[in-house]
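Quick question about two entries, pasted in order.
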Amino acid sequence: MHISPGRFFAGYELKIILAHILMNYDMKFEDNGPRPPNKWFGAAIIPDPTAKVYFRRRQTAPVGA
């Protein structure tokens, strides 16, 4: 059995990307509504793929403010 040595690297990269998005962007659903209900796809439950999510880069405060 061969296990990829890059599996930990890939996991860390995903965590870094998620942290960057959470720290630098404001997110909201269309019309400031609640989270859309999940969809059933066979035996799987998935988030609504047609839901619109808006991202806006956060404004940083000036240095010394």
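Here is the second entry:
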Amino acid sequence: MLSKADNELLTRVGPGTPMGNLMRQYWIPVLLSTELEPGGKPKRVRLLGESLIAYRAANGQAGLIGEFCPHRRVSLYFGRVEACGMRCAYHGWAFDLSGQCIDMPNEPPESNFKHKVRTTAYPCREQGGVIWTYMGPAAEPPPLPELEWTLLPPEHVFVSKRLQRCNYFQALEGGIDSSHINFLHAPLRRDDPEMIAELTKGGFGVGLAAQVSDTAPRFEVVDTDYGVLIGARRTLPDGRYYWRITQFLMPFYTMPPTELEDPMPQSHIWVPMDDEHVVNWMITWHPRRPLTEEELAAQVGGKGSHVVDYAPPTSAPYGDIIPANGPHNDYGMDWEAHRTRLFCGIPGFGMQDQAIQESAGPIVDRSLERLGTSDTAIIQVRRRLLNAAKALRDRGTPPPGQDPAAYAVRPASVILPPDVMWVEGAMDRLVVRPGRQLIYA
């Protein structure tokens, strides 16, 4: 459990909050690059409690500006996208990509007022088909993280995103919880070959045998320079250990384990819109080859973790990625399958996760929790975030994960003899660059 004070610190991400200030030290994904056209329609977004407008200037550069014009506080969503900035539709005030006012056509020609007016704007960079922004105080932002999927050819990568109606951290917790797969995503009968085959197609793979036979994994955690490495150990019938190794990367990345034979890593990026909403980015990639049509179909065809079936779009912030299923229809629950075949009858791993995460309410009161040994990873990641936020607030200590090369890691699943340390035994699968070692914090 957490104290109410620590729960507030962990979950509140708006301007001026310790956790919001921490997250502003990192690059944040905003939109896919393909969502904006030069001089085209802008999009409303919301990040860390701020209402913003994303656009692509006519010169091709992506921009991110505060939604409300500093003149009379009307929305720039209805403004005009120009060569290198945005112009308000109300009185024609224009702002460049940095937020500096560059034109006030309703003021006298001799006025120098425009030089005194700035509005909120954040720098943007593009990598991996994603527009990223830096919302922190540094005059020179840090380099972009060297996440493997952002450096691969586009055909090696599949990216989706969806809006969730809950605090970022209760969603993130699901991304580092290896014990819930034995229940939430499992068949009702663990000896049901038809259901096991169906789940295998959906992404469980050969590790399913260990997962259904050992429902109480033993957890070990190691702090790294970029976050936390999480090992969940299950015992196979022959006495060897099956390790599912999850990565947590500061401040909001999780990488669930891959399969044994053909690693195809996945990652979530849990980007807080505000205290009660999160954009769940999900990425699947293959390091060595393009993704096949069959692999893509398994990810988005109703059984996998990607959710791409959306409700009719609106122009609200991220209003075009609201899942079609939700609280209004019990997330598509099939109550007959729930009764007879599946531990949870909601179709698809991703929607199962979202339903459970949202079911706890917008922000969980963690002072009421009763945590067990299976929550070791969750406890450690909370501690890592809280300590980093407090250190930045109290001492100005730079947060962990500032080395972009530290993000060149993957999750993994491995089978090891009991006498082999799991981190060393899995090292060649966990790091992207040959010869690179994990740095323990």
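Reply: Residues 216 and 295 are 30 Å apart (CA to CA). The first strand starts at residue 27 and ends at 32. Hope that helps.
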